[in-house]
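Loading example: each entry is read as two labelled lines plus one structure line.
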Amino acid sequence: MSLITPVSFINEDGFQLFGMLEKPPADIDCSKAIILLSPGIKMRVAPHRLYNKMSNYYASLGFSVLRFDFYGLGDAGGDVEEEFLADLYGSIQVGRYVSDTLIAIDWLSKKCGTSDIIIAGLCGGAITGLLAAQSDDRVKGLIALGIPVVLDSSSTDAAKYITSGQMDRLHKGYIRRLLSVKSWLRLLTFQSDYRIIFNIFKNKFNKVFSKTSVDQSEVSASSAAPDNSNPLFAPAFFNMLEKGNRILLVFSGTDRLKWEFDEKFKKRFSHQLEKYTNLVDEVEIKEANHIISMPEWQQEMFSTSEFWLNSNFIKHE
Amino acid sequence: MSKETPVFFDNAGQNMFGIFHQPDSADFSKAIVICHSFAEEKLWAHRVLVNYARQLTDMGYMVLRFDYRGYGDSDGEFSNCTLTTYKEDIIEAVNYVRKSYPQINSIGLLGHRLGASIALECYDDTGVKGPLILWDPILDGDKYMQDFLRSNLTTQLAVYGEIRETREKLVQRMQSGDLINIEGYDLSYAQFESVSQLKLNKKLSNSDFTSLVVQVGRTEKTKKSFEEFSNIIGSDICCVVEDPFWKEIKRFYNKAPNIYKATSDWLGER
């Protein structure tokens, strides 16, 4: 059975960060370590205690696993000043918690006597791990669950930057609800998002009647992103790959982040990505939602990451 | 900042996780045990409770925040929780405060949402005599569980594009022994049934206790149900305006100033 210990360490600004260190059973070498980075504001346990399950699973594979709270969240010291969640998410996407992550890497390296760290995280945790890996060569791998490639902000019009994959899904949803009295009531009482509805049907109209279309894959990788893409994402992604580190991308089938990744990163950088196909693994869990709530989706994520860890980080005699 | 110490304590062979918030002054004699809300509401509201625990230590209270079994960093599975286990956990948390700090002569309970309802339900059994503070308690467990089931329907719509199982069908499945997954939480019929039967309308046998009900809503107007409830249990009532920070909303809530003020003012008068 693994052993869980509450731990704490101090970040650069003097705030106390709390966490849980789960060590594998005593008879297993525990010099391999994973850090789980908190998603959004859901602290070290993550939605529905997903990180407790992940920590337990990875410990059973022989990894020491640390999950901890970033400053201002969970049980940690400090405060978050942002008024809106979208702005807090946006600040995470540009590296708000990179410094806390580097402190955690230091702490865990000393504790476990290892210089090889794998970072794993859902959403905000994944992008924080990617950005932190640029500054720390001890990070050898990243398990990114639903990694965001865009910047959230309370002042951004989400409808303006919606992906075509998401539009298709929303379009189907609106068509299905044409006969729903409740939906019409929402529409007529101004509760619906008219900008999104307008954009969806405008997009459909254009698709049907427009003779010319732009192939997104032909957009130059060096061109400035004409939307809400995170400008830090691609440099950090390629920095990891240039160092020979491995990335496992796990996306949920019904999550808008999957379409955003495809349309706002993968297509745009398809040529550069070709060089690194041996370092990047991408898996889609069909039908899963953003928080991977169903046990069968979690099981698929576990077995995928176990295979990836086994293939790349566990030395077989 | 006051001293904050993470602890594990035993409850029937399972570890429960908590954090003690200790005031700066060494001669503290009052404590408050914080009882968190249900399922994902706990995570959304977490920071509001953390920051209020810190505020209470400034007022001289020792505070214990803890996770029920099946929640947070405590042992156990959510699927094994029932109203009974929640009550046992609160009682054990109170006992742990008594054992850890024998100099404390007054222990109170502060509960949020379902945590408030359970705190009221087990107040007599804990043997505490300190203040009972109920932040937006769930008055009708049946309605609350029906709303919770609705989240499963929302997930079905998002994933399959249609509702394949109605609430009635979900309840039938639970009755036959299946667990129903709601936002990642496996709900058993035992938990569903025990929470559904919760009706906050009994008067406590301990007539000495003092309590405060904080109604949280869009206006300061007292809802009839809350007025009746506070009359039945003989508590003070205060209505404050705050957003429902225990679910996903646009604002990021790490503090709830109106709830804090109402509670601190009330405590200050005692």
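Residues 141-197 of chain B form one domain.
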